[in-house]
Backbone:
């Protein structure tokens, strides 16, 4: 049980990082990103490949994962920054699918659907599995703390205020003399870097990545986490991630207790309950558990 | 582990979570305490068409074993988690099975990605993992013996299939493969085999599994003037391809894995479309009772190869634990080969196996998916293949090679 | 491609594939035109329609042609219910909030269907016809028939929009909701009609996909990216645009199967989106933006 809880807290850390990354792009700047799992995947693959094929040290791999994801984010932003939100939702969704397909088909680089196994983890094998879990718990939550600190500062800096201005009314921000495109690109790069870092850490915790792991469902989960926590709020992103893991794991135990249904029906109840939670949250608690304090519009 | 922190954290997960922390440890606790088997099949996502039957097969075996008195008096409890055909969900599910339920083995991982993702957890926590996954890379992992893969090596499968096809006169074979961990290796084997046998692979396409239209792919098959097409995919896509080939009037041989066209194929396609389709799967001897018993348990419908394999997974784990006298993952690992191969008395079901083991006799389990003998890497060996042809909504056995 | 026939065949295959995408894309754009949000739940509506048609056809013996209206009505009802109960209250929070909730609705519908029917593949009670051949080019009568159904459904919508009071009111709201309101058109009623028609068309489209393949809880999900691509390429909110966009995406995906690699079909849809958005952001037939 202990090991399970620690492992789930490690997962909560990954989800918190992802929610923080999404929060910069969606929460602060108002650009919806339904392709966040794509950036997460880019970071995971970059770090996994550099550390296992080129034997880079892990911290360097993580940094590279974040950097390459940020680069992808920058390119993405240049393409989509002019688009309205609805187009953006569709394009980003497509982007994540493209990443997954490339990872499946470019076998020479990514090992295709076989995935990459044996990705090194810090002291993995030299310590007990539970010690490894605890070490990683420290690493991932340190990353969360650093990201939280930096992003919170950015959020309350002039940079963050411009992003919010863009979110509330892009035209007004432009009239006020702000280079909107440039700010959007910077927001996207920052968010994608955090997503990439989450992916990089994830790859080294799991020791294995494969294209199937970067499916759209994870994106929905993170959107749910941020919505639950409070869109625009950095503290909310972290609370939301913990809420998310409690929900997806808690429904496991609740579904098991439902009598008289087949295992498939239990699985359906569980996934359905998660979706329903998102709908109910949007309806009854749109500001999230930790509402953004500086938010001017509901 | 300290009781205090355990309870406080368990409370986080709600009462239901706290309740399940009463799960009993895998080591021999009090006499009569139940033994937990974890099952991790795909119940949602792309593997959804397979997982439910795989789980049913496990439950059937466990019920039978419990009715026969369980493992040395201890009942077996099955805990199933959905792997969502997603390695991320599979890892969380495996964590729960291992850490909360204290499962001594995990049965029935389907997607290769899920299996490879949970494999390190299994060997690090000394839990035996029984899988049906197709990727040959799985048993090459440093798994210390904890992995048992009942899906024959894909090179071996394709290679025997090529021999069979050539013996039936196939000379130009079109290889149509879903993007999977064994598409490319299958192609290598086919090219090699047919070149050596005086034939040729007349075309090779890797397609995206989730698509709904494959007309242009079928056009290429038609243009290639192939006498045989090898459909190396899964249920949903092979169903569409069979329909398209029928429409296009493909006259050649259609050949596929038995997991890509099973009893449900007859529900979604008319007989005139499926008639003549040849499938193959690993198989036990013709007179083996295990296959027929499973068929009867499923209500006399065709048994798909994955369910046959999970049937054997559960039986192997139970008999190995009975042989060892304890139900830890390591005990299962160390005893699977003692009850699955060798000179012991042949048994084809868990009841007979438990009875013989209790009487101190050596047994050799012959399963529904084959004779289930494992090599040192955990790969299945020495299996036969059964070739069947679809005829008016049933499969008829052609031959057993 | 050695022959003009090969090219003609690919184009024809593309049109057949496109005509299956057409109705869900039109449904998506119909809802977008009036409500100004992308309703990702069209995937769920497709699956709901496909299963409703299946129940009618297989369990109650209704012929396929007569089951299509049932698919329409059930999907339309599901769509309307989802809109009124879950999505409408979110409208004040902005279109993106509604869009995200619609993603959740798709997952919810998928699992309601999984709960009720399980994961097994199902097929309609329908003989499968051989292709016709014209000078080496093959055409399938069933697919032709499907294309016919799609055109009839789309044509009915065009007629409705062009020649009826309701249609004019819908266009008025799509053009300028404020002005329409002043003129006495009830925007709520029009919104309901748009969702009803949009979800219903997606349902018919889902059943047509099912006729051409087989159905399971993921039926709508498999085509959804191509459907969005069709809607964007044609121009969000444009109904003729959705029809044209579906053809472009359908042909593009089949061409990709021949020219590029079949394993990269979905990438074509994405590239089509990017190309259109780069050179003609309002879409091929999109008007104002």
Residues:
């Amino acid at each position: 049980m202990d090991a399970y809880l620690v492992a789930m807290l490690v997962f909560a850390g990954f989800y918190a990082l992802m929610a923080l990354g999404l929060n910069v792009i969606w929460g602060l700047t108002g650009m919806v990103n339904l392709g966040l799992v794509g950036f997460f995947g880019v970071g995971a693959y970059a770090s996994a490949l550099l550390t296992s094929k080129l034997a880079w040290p892990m911290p360097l791999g993580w940094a590279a994962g974040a950097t390459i994801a940020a680069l992808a984010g920058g390119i993405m932003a240049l393409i989509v920054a002019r688009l309205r939100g609805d187009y953006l939702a569709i394009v980003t969704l497509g982007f994540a699918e493209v990443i997954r397909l490339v990872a499946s088909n470019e076998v020479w680089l990514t090992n295709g659907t076989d995935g990459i196994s044996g990705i090194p983890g810090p002291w993995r094998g030299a310590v007990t599995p539970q010690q490894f879990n605890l070490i990683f718990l420290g690493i991932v939550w340190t990353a969360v703390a650093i990201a939280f600190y930096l992003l919170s500062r950015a959020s309350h800096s002039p940079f963050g205020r411009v992003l919010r201005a863009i979110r509330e009314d892009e035209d007004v921000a432009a009239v006020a003399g702000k280079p909107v495109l440039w700010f959007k690109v910077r927001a996207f790069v920052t968010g994608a870097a955090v997503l990439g870092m989450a992916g990089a850490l994830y790859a080294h915790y799991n020791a294995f990545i494969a294209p199937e792991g970067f499916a759209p469902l994870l994106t929905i989960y993170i959107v749910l986490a941020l919505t639950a926590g409070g869109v625009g709020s950095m503290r909310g992103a972290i609370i939301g991630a913990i809420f998310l893991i409690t929900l997806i794991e808690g429904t496991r135990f609740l579904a098991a207790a439902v009598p008289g249904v087949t295992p498939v029906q239990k699985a359906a109840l569980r996934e359905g309950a998660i979706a329903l939670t998102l709908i109910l949250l949007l309806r009854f608690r749109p500001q999230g558990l930790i509402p953004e304090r500086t938010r001017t519009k509901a | 582990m300290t009781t205090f922190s355990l309870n406080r954290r368990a409370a986080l997960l709600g009462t239901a979570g706290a309740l399940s922390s009463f799960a009993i440890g895998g080591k021999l606790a009090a006499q009569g305490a139940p033994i937990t088997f974890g099952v991790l099949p795909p119940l949602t996502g792309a593997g959804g068409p397979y997982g439910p039957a795989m789980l049913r097969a496990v439950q059937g075996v466990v019920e039978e074993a419990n009715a026969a008195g369980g493992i040395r008096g201890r009942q077996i409890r099955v805990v199933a988690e959905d792997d969502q055909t997603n390695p991320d969900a599979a890892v969380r599910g495996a964590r729960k099975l291992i850490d909360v339920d204290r499962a001594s083995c995990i049965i029935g991982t389907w997607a290769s990605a899920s299996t490879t993702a949970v494999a390190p957890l299994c060997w690090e926590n000394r839990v035996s993992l029984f899988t049906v996954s197709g990727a040959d890379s799985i048993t090459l992992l440093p798994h210390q013996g904890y992995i048992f893969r009942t899906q024959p090596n894909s090179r071996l499968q394709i290679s025997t299939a090529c021999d069979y096809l050539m013996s039936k006169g196939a000379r130009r074979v079109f290889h149509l493969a879903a993007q999977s961990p064994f598409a490319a290796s299958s192609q290598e084997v086919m090219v090699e085999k047919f070149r050596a046998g005086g034939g040729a692979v007349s075309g090779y396409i890797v397609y995206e599994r989730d698509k709904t239209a494959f007309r242009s792919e079928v056009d290429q098959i038609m243009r290639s003037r192939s006498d045989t097409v090898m459909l190396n995919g899964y249920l949903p896509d092979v169903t569409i391809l069979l329909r398209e080939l029928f429409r296009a009037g493909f006259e050649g041989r259609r050949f596929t894995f038995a997991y890509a066209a099973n009893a449900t194929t007859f529900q979604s396609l008319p007989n005139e479309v499926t008639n003549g389709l040849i499938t193959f799967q690993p198989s036990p001897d013709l007179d083996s009772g295990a296959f027929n018993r499973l068929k009867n348990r499923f209500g006399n419908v065709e048994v798909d190869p994955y369910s046959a394999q999970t049937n054997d997974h559960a039986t192997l784990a139970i008999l190995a634990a009975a042989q060892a006298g304890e139900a830890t993952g390591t005990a299962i690992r160390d005893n699977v080969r003692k009850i699955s191969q060798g000179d012991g008395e042949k048994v084809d079901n868990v009841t007979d196996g438990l009875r013989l083991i209790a009487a101190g006799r050596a047994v050799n389990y012959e399963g529904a998916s084959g004779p289930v003998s494992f090599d040192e890497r955990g790969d299945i060996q020495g299996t036969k293949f059964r070739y069947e042809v679809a005829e008016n909504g049933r499969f008829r056995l052609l031959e057993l090679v | 491609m050695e022959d003009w026939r090969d090219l003609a065949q690919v184009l024809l295959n593309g049109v057949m594939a496109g005509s299956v995408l057409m109705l869900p894309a039109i449904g998506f754009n119909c809802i977008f035109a009036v409500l100004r949000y992308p309703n990702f739940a069209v995937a769920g509506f497709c699956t709901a329609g496909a299963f409703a048609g299946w129940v009618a056809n297989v369990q109650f013996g209704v012929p396929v042609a007569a089951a299509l209206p049932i698919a329409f009505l059930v999907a339309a009802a599901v769509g309307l219910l989802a809109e009124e109960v879950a999505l409408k209250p979110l409208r004040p929070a902005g279109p993106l909030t509604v869009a995200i909730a619609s993603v959740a609705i798709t997952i919810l519908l998928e699992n309601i269907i999984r709960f009720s029917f399980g994961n097994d593949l199902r097929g309609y009670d329908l003989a499968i016809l051989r292709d016709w051949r014209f000078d080496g080019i093959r055409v399938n009568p069933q697919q032709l028939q499907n294309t016919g159904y799609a055109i009839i459904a789309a044509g009915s919508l065009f007629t409705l929009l062009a020649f009826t009071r309701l249609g004019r009111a819908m266009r008025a709201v799509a053009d300028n909701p404020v002005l329409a309101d002043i003129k006495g058109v009830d925007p709520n009623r029009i919104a309901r009609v748009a969702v009803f028609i949009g979800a219903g068309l997606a349902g018919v489209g889902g059943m047509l996909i099912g006729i051409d393949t087989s159905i399971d809880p993921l039926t709508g999900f498999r085509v959804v990216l191509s459907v969005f691509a069709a809607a964007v390429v044609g121009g969000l909110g444009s109904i003729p645009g959705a029809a044209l966009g579906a053809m472009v995406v359908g042909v593009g995906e089949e061409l990709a199967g021949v020219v590029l690699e079949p394993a990269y079909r979905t990438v074509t849809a994405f590239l089509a989106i990017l190309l259109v958005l780069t050179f003609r952001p309002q879409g091929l037939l999109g008007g104002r933006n």
